[in-house]
Every structure is written in structure tokens, then in C-alpha cells.
């Protein structure tokens, strides 16, 4: 899969990976807000129930487990994984829709997703967003007020696996952003994607 911008330059999708609580979603939302003409989010599918304020087709495509498993069987997904009893996945259709729009496709996936995408022909830019420490990550997750002791522990266990993967597989990601200070982290992300944004704007 590849997309051509108006001036003929190829646009590469951007894959964002990082533990829950790393600030990944905050950085993504800020990027989308500043450059709405350049980026479009690939909306993932999930079997989990919508949270208050979430809309089907915006945050996720909310589907039943049966629907998801059927789609996986038909190879409709570039990647999929199960977390806390729910399945999440990136459909080929969702990514293709963004590519056809002439925008840069942004994907938010976990480590399993990264491994799957590396086997595909997508050829994205891989960015890993990491917290400054596990202590800071735990504090952020607790401050959300949405986690039970059990779900908090699951997220911390998953975060450790993701951070270990990043250390053990240094070539898995093109860029590593430590989100200690949000402004600095966003400035770095903006700089990393500057050439891609410039292609869209034709500057």
C-alpha cells in the first residue's frame, strides 16, 4: 500500500506504539488538531464496550467478538491482538480509506501490532512513545481514576513487556520519544514528521 500526494511524493503511514499512560493519545490528538489537513486516524476495531463519550466509528468501530473473529478469518485485518479479554485490530479497509484520501495514515497499535505490520507491505514510520519511568507511568494511570487495581496491574504488566521489547529490539522503531515534558515531546514528534507534513502542504 502506498499513497501519492498531489506533488507526487509518496506518503508513509505513521505507526504510534507505547504503553497506556505514556501520553501517546494526547500527542496524537494534538497532532491531528494542528494538522487536520495532513493526518487522518485509522479507526481500529474492538470488541470492548464504548466508554462514556465515545462514538462508534470515531474512537473505534465497536463490534461483537463473533463479527471480529469472522473478519480475522477472512484476513480483513493488517494486525489484531487481544488485551484484557477484548480484541483490537487494524482493518485493511480503514487504512486504505485514509491512503485514498491523500492524507497520512496514523495508526495506534501495540507491540503485537508492530510485529504484524512489519510482515506487511505497509512500510510505515514507526514511533515509540515511552514514559520517563514505570513510577511516572503508574502515577499517570492512577490519576486517570478509571482503573481498578486489577486493570491497573494488567496495564503495568503490559507496559513492562512493551518497554522491554523496545530495549531488546532497538531497530524495531525508527524513533523513540520519551514523554517526560509534553511540550518537548510534541516538538520532537513534529520535527520527525515535518518532511511528511511538508509533502501534504506542498511547501
UniProtKB/TrEMBL annotation:
<keyword id="KW-0067">ATP-binding</keyword>
<dbReference type="Pfam" id="PF00625">
    <property type="entry name" value="Guanylate_kin"/>
</dbReference>
<comment type="similarity">
    <text>Belongs to the guanylate kinase family.</text>
</comment>
<dbReference type="GO" id="GO:0004385">
    <property type="term" value="F:GMP kinase activity"/>
</dbReference>
<dbReference type="GO" id="GO:0005829">
    <property type="term" value="C:cytosol"/>
</dbReference>
<dbReference type="GO" id="GO:0005524">
    <property type="term" value="F:ATP binding"/>
</dbReference>
<protein>
    <recommendedName>
        <fullName>guanylate kinase</fullName>
        <ecNumber>2.7.4.8</ecNumber>
    </recommendedName>
</protein>
<dbReference type="InterPro" id="IPR017665">
    <property type="entry name" value="Guanylate_kinase"/>
</dbReference>
<keyword id="KW-0418">Kinase</keyword>
<feature type="domain" description="Guanylate kinase-like">
    <location>
        <begin position="11"/>
        <end position="194"/>
    </location>
</feature>
<keyword id="KW-0808">Transferase</keyword>
<dbReference type="InterPro" id="IPR027417">
    <property type="entry name" value="P-loop_NTPase"/>
</dbReference>
<dbReference type="InterPro" id="IPR020590">
    <property type="entry name" value="Guanylate_kinase_CS"/>
</dbReference>
<keyword id="KW-0547">Nucleotide-binding</keyword>
<dbReference type="InterPro" id="IPR008144">
    <property type="entry name" value="Guanylate_kin-like_dom"/>
</dbReference>
<dbReference type="InterPro" id="IPR008145">
    <property type="entry name" value="GK/Ca_channel_bsu"/>
</dbReference>
Amino acid at each position: 500500500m502506498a499513497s501519492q500526494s498531489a506533488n507526487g511524493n509518496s506518503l508513509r503511514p505513521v505507526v504510534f506504539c507505547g504503553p497506556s499512560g505514556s501520553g501517546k493519545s494526547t500527542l496524537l490528538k494534538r497532532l491531528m488538531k494542528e494538522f487536520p489537513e495532513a493526518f487522518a486516524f485509522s479507526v481500529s476495531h474492538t470488541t470492548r464496550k464504548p466508554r462514556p463519550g465515545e462514538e462508534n466509528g470515531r474512537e473505534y468501530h465497536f463490534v461483537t467478538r463473533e463479527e471480529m473473529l469472522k473478519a480475522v478469518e477472512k484476513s480483513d485485518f493488517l494486525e489484531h491482538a487481544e488485551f484484557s479479554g477484548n480484541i483490537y485490530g487494524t482493518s485493511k479497509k480503514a487504512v486504505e480509506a485514509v491512503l485514498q484520501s491523500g492524507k497520512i495514515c496514523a495508526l495506534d497499535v501495540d507491540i503485537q501490532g508492530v510485529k504484524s505490520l512489519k510482515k506487511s507491505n505497509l512500510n510505515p514510520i514507526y514511533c515509540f512513545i515511552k514514559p520517563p519511568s514505570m513510577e511516572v507511568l503508574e502515577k499517570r494511570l492512577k490519576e486517570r481514576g478509571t482503573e481498578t487495581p486489577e486493570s491497573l496491574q494488567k496495564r503495568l504488566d503490559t507496559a513492562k513487556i512493551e518497554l522491554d521489547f523496545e530495549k531488546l529490539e532497538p531497530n524495531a522503531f525508527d524513533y523513540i520519544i520519551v514523554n517526560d515534558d509534553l511540550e518537548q515531546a510534541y516538538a520532537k514528534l513534529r520535527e520527525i514528521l515535518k518532511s511528511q507534513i511538508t509533502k501534504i502542504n506542498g511547501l
